[in-house]
Amino acid sequence: MIVNIFKQEGLEVLGWRPVPVNTSVVGFYAKETMPNIEQVFVRVINEEDVDDIERELYICRKLIERAANSESWGNELYFCSLSNRTIVYKGMLRSEVLRLFYSDLQNDIYKSPFAIYHRRYSTNTSPRWPLAQPMRFLGHNGEINTIQVIKFSTVLKCSWHFEAFSYFDSKMYSG
User: Which domain holds residue 42?
Assistant: First the structure.
């Protein structure tokens, strides 16, 4: 199904690669629940522009995810990334063992100008591999709110600062 969708979208699958990992550095539960981690290499035949390639890869990922929902194994499929710009490694890992777990990160020819690591999982569920944040585009600290909440919070903070400074400037405060 995956290869067929790539083909339908004009991409050629060049191959699959099991991502080399060192399971001796992870905990018992992480090891017991670890998924099969693979990378797929594709060639985009009909596009040359980098943005168009990225868009086509995004479309393929969404089509594959949608099609996988109707398969018995669909909830086991997860793309950390399918991008010509970024590679995402994720797992139930402490920051100290990330480099040791993924052998690629120890290779001298494997370079990146930066890395983002997020260690927290959902606070209302047990940690699981799929719940590790993928960081495909953006990392966050869990404090995602609606615009109304952010505006209200900002108004409260500004009001508090105004009141606090008014108090400190008054004759009541002599410190």
Answer: 2-140
